[in-house]
Structure formats: structure tokens, C-alpha cells
Batch of 2 targets.
Target 1
Amino acid sequence: MLTKWILSPRNYSTAANRFRVVEVGARDGLQAEKKFVPTKIKVELIDRLSACGFSTVETTSFVSPKWIPQLADHNDVVAQHQRFPGVAYPVLVPNSAGLKNAMATGVVDEIAVFAAASDGFSKKNVNATVEESLKKLIEVTKTALDANIRVRGYVSVVVGCPYDGAVNPEVVARVTETLLAAGCYEVSLGDTIGVGTVNTVSKMLDTVLKHVPAEKLAVHFHDTYGQALSNVLVSIEKGIRAADSSVAGLGGCPYAKGATGNLATEDLLYFLRGNGFETGVDLEKVVETAKWFNLAAGYDKWSRVGAAISAKMEKKI
Ligand SMILES: [Zn+2]
């Protein structure tokens, strides 16, 4: 059966056509890439992304270097990158020790915390059940808010878990509600292993939206099976106007085997522009940034849209 959204018109009203793209390449992207990227290049990547027009650029993670050596230079990164007016620069914080280290830098004014929607993933990732990890996150969030630090929430494995299989949408809803009640200004729902389809994402969102308003949600899709943009469209149809993506499709998730990549920012921007959404982000500039990064870091990572636009640009020269 075709779901109703497929037939609905695409003329979004002007009030509803703003869309926020949260750039996560420097953190979510680089943490999953095997090669260590020198600090100088990370800093320039963040600065170049800031110049593209994003309102949120996630920069690094204050997780122990033992777990994620790729981001061991978090102190230097946050101290060295520029801070464009109107741009938020969240850093990922796994626990109270991470928050303490982030606060010690004196420059972090936004953090992101994460909880999983399955016990299997939560235990593998933070060595605690979902309930146990939520208790700790409530404390971390409270400490951050008391220090005037804004908090964004992430929920991992909202559709499927590599250890537990299909995830119950009611659990996703409860974790999301808990994070919002703790004081997160927004919760990003992550399909960490990219298994979601229109059908499963739709059901998950319907359940979550019974408990929390669409304005408080963002979505975070991985393109493992090529379903990310379809899933963004479903989210849009349900009223969500924010999504995470990664320049050049950098990264996946180091704890999720086979999570081969974040939705690429270039692909998301092309899709949004073509469907009448305003993001404030310059797509061509993002493509140039991806091209620069590949050269500077010795990578060869391209999104489909990035490759197409880059080829077009080269022909003009
Ligand atoms: Zn991701």
C-alpha cells in the first residue's frame, strides 16, 4: 500500500520552508575514519564549514582518547577554531568526566549528549543499560545547564540495533522525552546503522510525535542502504525541519559494524534546495570544502552530489 505522503503536494508554505542542516562531519565523520586527521586540518575544516552558512557545526568529542584516538586533540581543536557569530559549535560529551574536560577549556558553550534506544547498543557503547545511562545523562545535562551550556540530545539506533535487532518505537519515544525533560533544546533521532526505510521510520516517528512536538526533533540518517533521503522526506512530511549530515559523507559509527556513512551534506542540500527549502547554506561552497579536505587530508571521499557538482565546476575552468 502506498502511504499518503507519496501523493501529497510539494509546495511547502513559506512559514514551513526553513530547514536547519546540522553539520557533523568534523565529529561524527572523523571519529569513524581510520586515518588521524592533523589538528590544523580539522580546525580549517570547521572554519570553512562555518563560512558555508551552517548555524550548527559540531566540532569534536570529549570522549577518552583510549576509545576514539582520532579526536584525541579535542582541547586544541576547540581552542583554535574560529567562532562565527550566530553559529553554534557543540562538542559531544559521553559522561561527567567528558563534561568536566569540556568545561575546563572555558570556550565550550554547547554540548551534545547521547543515549541509545536499545540495551544491547548502550551496553556495548557506554557499558550501561538505557535506564542507567539516562540517569547519568540527566545529571550531566543539569550540570551543563547550570553552567549556561546548551545541551543537544542524540538517540542512537532508533530503528534497528546491530545487537538487539528491531527497536521498539515506544523506547525511542521514552528516551527522547527523558532527554527533553532533562533540558535538551532538541533531540536528534539517529538511525545509526542506516537500516531504516520509509515504513519503519514512519512508524517510529508517529510514535515519538505522540509524545513530543516536531519542533523539538532533528533526524540523523546513515546512508548504508541508500535510504537516507527517502527517510528525510518522511520526516519532513511529519513536520520535522532539522537534519544532521556530514560533509563528503564522512564517517559512520565506530561501534556499529557496517555503518558505512552519514548522509552526505551535499546530497541533503541538493535535495532540500530542489524541494523549495531554505537552509542558508551555500551548496557549492560545501562542495569546494569537500574538495579542499580531500586534498589537504589525503582522502578521496565524495558524495554523489559533490562528485557531480565538482565535475561540472571543473569543466567550466
Ligand atoms: Zn552519524
Target 2
Amino acid sequence: MISNGSVFEDDHLLDPIVGRNSHMNEVADALAPIEDGQRAENCFLFGPSGAGKTTVARAAVRELRREVLDVPYAYVNCWRDYTRNAVLERLSRDLVGAAVPRFASTSTLLDRVHRDFNGPGVVILDEVDQLRETELLYDLHEFRGLSWIGIANDEIDLVTDLDERVRSRISVGYRVRFDRYGGDTIAEMLERRAREGLGPNGESDEVFETIAWLSDGDARMGITTLRVAARKASSEGLSNIPRRLVDDSISEAEREIARKTYSKLNDHQWVVVGVLQQDGPLIQREPHERYSERHDDPVSLRYFRDAHLTNLEQYGLISTRRKSGKKLYSLAQKREQVVSR
Ligand SMILES: Nc1ncnc2c1ncn2[C@@H]1O[C@H](COP(=O)(O)OP(=O)(O)OP(=O)(O)O)[C@@H](O)[C@H]1O
Ligand SMILES: [Mg+2]
């Protein structure tokens, strides 16, 4: 019964997106100076997983580019590209379309973007809390007319590691908080996707409402569950989704999302998962100690906590609890079965 599977992919951007009008307006306000040829305000979007942060950022840039054709734009996922050089490489490719040799030095990359970038323009820095070298934000500031939309789960201070002189020059004009979605909004997203992606008869308000309610405000969970349920219905030869398939689909969707999240982990995070799987639960500094023994190029304790542990926890891959006032880390139980690397 799935007629168009791409509709259920994470990067499928509905046009227009569902709800989130006030969030869209805020980001649009931040970007508005670009319409007059000026640098936009930087903005920072934060909130829980599946609350639509990446979607709103991409939709706001799409709107902008309908107004001002060909605004230079790049999307960087800092989970994947977490070093200064990796981000600069992506900018020279996607923002200014300049081919760069592999392993180009930082100064070559900076020169390339300086030379070819014709602002104003905008960069989405998704999962920006994973950025290891925050001086990159200063590099961005130095590119004339470039602004950014940073995205993270928590409202973090991105520039704490920079020295005062540099810090005071990087301003964040808009901070936009995302809360979990209400059930009605998720039900509407499911209906829109069903209309685009499931065959005729694929729609059922009762099923959308049930899935939306069970997804607990997480749009990704809702959409993935709908796809799993549609797949199950097809394999039973049905042309619609019966209510009884929904509960099993939710747990399968949870595993599917966890599997995808695992596939995004970088080598540091894999070592953490491996350490916890083998030796967990671990207490206080132990995860960092064991990780440092096993990684060739370990990061500092602070970065480890802020970027890796916090993120793995937010994505539900590891869980923490307190025991006699000390923090204990372990692999989240539901996730153990999907670790396969
Ligand atoms: N307002 C919306 N309209 C339509 N689809 C949406 C909307 N919000 C989220 N989605 C869909 O839900 C899924 C998750 O949304 P998104 O990736 O934006 O979440 P996020 O807040 O960035 O989560 P994370 O912190 O895990 O990256 C995507 O498939 C996206 O297309
Ligand atoms: Mg996102």
C-alpha cells in the first residue's frame, strides 16, 4: 500500500510544513535583512528530538530562496562534520561551489571561501553542539554577509570556549524554543504524508490519531510508525491499516529510529557505546577513562560530557541514573538489541 516511500524519509520537506507558524515567522524575521542585501541575524533553535527544528530551518530557507533567488546556502550536519576543517570543506563545496583538494589546510579553505563567497548568505549548522572547534563560528563571522541558523537539543552557550574579544562579536539575535508537538499536529502530518505516500484507502483518522497520541510529541516517531504500520498491512495483503497493528509498529519504529541514530555515530561515540556495552554500567568519570584508553585521539572530559554523553542520552541510546549521589551510565536497554557493529 506504500505508493511513494520517499514521503516517509526524514528529509522529505512538506510544502508547506504543518503548523509551527510562529517558529517559521521568527526565523523568517531573522533572515529578512537578506532581502535587502544585508547580513541576517544568527539564530539558535533548540528543543527535543522530533520537534521540527531541522524542518523549520530548512523550510525557512526554502521560503527565503523563493523571495531572493540563489541566496548562497549550505546545510552542515555537525554530527558528521565536527571539525573546523570538515565544516569549511563543506562550505567551500556547497556555499561557493569551489572544488578543494582533499586534506586542504585550514588557511587554504578559509582563503577559498573568502575569495568566492558573495554574501549575504546563510548556513544551517545542524546538531551544532557536536562542533568540536567553535572558533569556526568566528570564521563564519569573518565571511562578509554570512549568517547561520544553529540547531541543538539544549539551549547551550556556543561560544564559551572562545576568548572574550572574539565572543563579543558573535551575536545570536534570535533564540527559538521548540516544544514537543501536540497530538493534533502530528495527526495532520500523518494525514498529509498518507495522502502523498500511501495508496487509495490508506487514510484512517482513527489510526492517525492513535499513532499521534502514542508518539508523545515526536514527529519522527509518528511518521516512522505510520510507515511500519503500512508495511505490515501490505504484507498481510490489506489495503488499509487496522488499529491492531499500531502497537507493534510503535516498538518496531523505536528500534528503526535507534538503528538509524547508531548509523550516524562518529568513531568517538562508537567507542563509548562499545565501552558501555562491554563494561557498563559505569560511574562518574569511568566512561571517559575507558574511552580514552581505547581511542587514539581522545577528546577532553568536558567535551566528552557535553557533546558525546549528553547527545547519546538525548537520542535515547544511553541512560543515566543516580546511585548514592553518583551518576551511573549504561546502554539503554531497548537499544542493546540493535547494536551491531
Ligand atoms: N511541522 C512539520 N511539518 C511536517 N513535517 C514535519 C514537521 N515537523 C517535523 N516533521 C517531520 O518529522 C520528522 C522529524 O522532524 P525534524 O527532523 O525536523 O526534527 P528535529 O527537531 O530536527 O529532531 P532532532 O533533534 O532529532 O534532529 C521529519 O521527518 C520531518 O519531516
Ligand atoms: Mg534535526
